[in-house]
Design goal:
The protein has twelve helices and 22 strands. The protein is α/β, with parallel strands linked by helices. It has two domains: 2-207 and 377-428, Ribonuclease Z/Hydroxyacylglutathione hydrolase-like (Metallo-beta-lactamase, Chain A, 4-Layer Sandwich); 211-372, Rossmann fold, CATH 3.40.50. Helix 2 runs antiparallel to helix 3 and helix 5 (241-251) crosses helix 7 (279-288). The radius of gyration is 21 Å and the shape is globular. It starts with a strand and ends with a strand.
Length: 429
């Protein structure tokens, strides 16, 4: 089996792995300025997509230009998320040289889509392929590729539930079972036999705090601000994080508004209850939420209502959040509670580092309190090792991280046969 790394090698973004010049695993984009896409020219016989985040699925419609019509395999939620993201990309970039595909190519996605459930094997480009729950977002999957001689496991992004539940209280599902990781989806437990593993490494040098502790700190902080008469803006990624924060707020008895693309994604998730940890809990959170349309000055009124507002974008790169932040920034009673990783160079990272942020083209000081909470949907160092410990006899290829080489070296020091391929590398396994 020949593996070529077209993206995501020693970087986060534009994930793309080509197997034997035939089967393509993911085809994403990096949301840099300008955006970047996988390298090389590809003409796959089939495509398998691990999950519906832009850095894994964002460039898929471009594969359908000209006469190309490779079938695209994914779970039902991933298919719907891919279409939603593609239409959003067209809305933002359509007609510009930065847009990698056309409206016609997005329409073709519906014609070639093939959806599958977890552990349902199927044929793609002559390989037997099986998807396993990766515990990252609804529909996310590990991808097992079997050519009859070699079994390759592509982890995609995954979550193993973290290091524990802190004091073990206050985090159980509807059946009374303890929740170790996210409320939205259960953690991955899949460990299919494999001869080689391509493993993400996003948080290979981080130990996440127990999720129960993070939730409790977040809820107490939000309640304190609301009690003091302030407003809390909770920037959150639309896919996965917005819905997770809805569940957290509802469980901790915090009333909240929801604004932005996350409301559309919520509708997608609720149509696929089998891909959720507890569909009833998400239904209850939706009932508690007040959804924002943005019409008739609604946002300007909400910021004066002493409220918690879950809104895109998670890194303050646009979206409704950039309406709320200018409104609340001058009052030190108010709060901005960031809920995800802030990439270097984004307004969210600038705000964390300097207390200032670029808003509407101007750098503004922010007197409101700024806090950051690690609600990551990725495995941390311990989670990565807990999965990889099942593959000590396999070849391990580390990707999707900003310290891939260092993590591969740590694995080799512990007896693994591990490497960190560079962009464009071809490796035989």
């Amino acid at each position: 089996m020949e593996i070529e790394f077209l993206g995501g090698a020693r970087e986060i973004g534009r994930s793309a792995v080509l197997v034997d010049d035939s089967l393509l695993l993911d085809y994403g984009m990096a949301t840099t300025t300008p955006p970047s896409f996988p390298v090389g020219d590809v003409d796959p016989d089939a495509v398998v997509v691990s999950h519906g985040h832009l850095d894994h699925v964002g460039t898929v419609p471009a594969l359908l230009s000209g006469d190309a019509r490779p079938p695209i395999h994914w779970t039902p939620p991933t298919y719907e998320l891919a279409l939603r993201l593609a239409r959003d990309t067209l809305k933002l970039q359509g007609g510009s040289p930065l847009c990698p595909f056309t409206e016609e190519e997005v329409k073709r996605v519906t014609q070639v889509s093939r959806t599958h459930g977890y552990r349902e094997s199927f044929e793609a480009a002559g390989y037997e392929v099986t998807l396993y729950d990766a515990g990252h977002i609804p529909g996310s999957a590990h991808v097992l590729v079997d050519d009859g001689d070699t079994r390759l496991l592509y982890t995609g992004d995954f979550h193993t539930g973290g290091t524990g539940t802190d004091d073990g209280t206050d985090r159980t599902d509807g059946d009374g079972r303890p929740i170790r990781g996210q409320r939205l989806v259960p953690e991955t437990t899949a460990r299919p036999d494999a001869d080689a593993v391509i493993a993400e490494s996003t948080y290979s040098d981080v130990d996440h705090s127990p999720r129960a502790r993070i939730e409790r700190q977040f809820a107490e902080s939000v309640k304190t601000t609301l009690w003091e008469g302030g407003t809390v803006v909770v920037p959150a990624f639309a896919i996965g994080r917005t819905q997770e924060m809805m569940l957290v707020c509802d469980h901790h008895d915090v009333d909240f508004f929801v604004d932005g693309m996350g409301a559309d994604v919520l509708r997608i998730f609720r149509q696929h209850p089998d891909f959720l940890r507890d569909s009833g809990a998400l239904r209850r959170a939706k009932s508690r939420a007040r959804f924002v349309t943005g019409r008739d000055g609604q946002r300007e009124r909400i910021v004066r209502e002493n409220a918690a507002i879950i809104t895109t974008s998670g890194m303050l790169q646009g979206g409704p959040a950039m309406t709320y932040v200018p409104e609340i920034r001058a009052n030190p009673v108010n709060k901005i509670a960031l809920t995800g990783y802030q990439v270097e160079g984004t307004p969210g990272r600038e705000l964390l580092d300097t207390g200032r942020a670029e808003i509407d083209g101007r750098v503004m000081p922010v007197s409101a309190q700024v806090e950051w909470y690690d609600f990551s949907a990725h495995a941390d160092r311990g989670g990565l090792r807990s999965l990889l410990d099942a593959y000590r006899d396999a070849d391990v290829l580390v990707n999707h991280g900003d310290r891939c080489e260092a993590f591969a070296a740590e694995l080799r020091a512990d007896g693994f046969d591990a490497a960190a391929p560079e962009l464009g590398d071809r490796i035989s396994i």
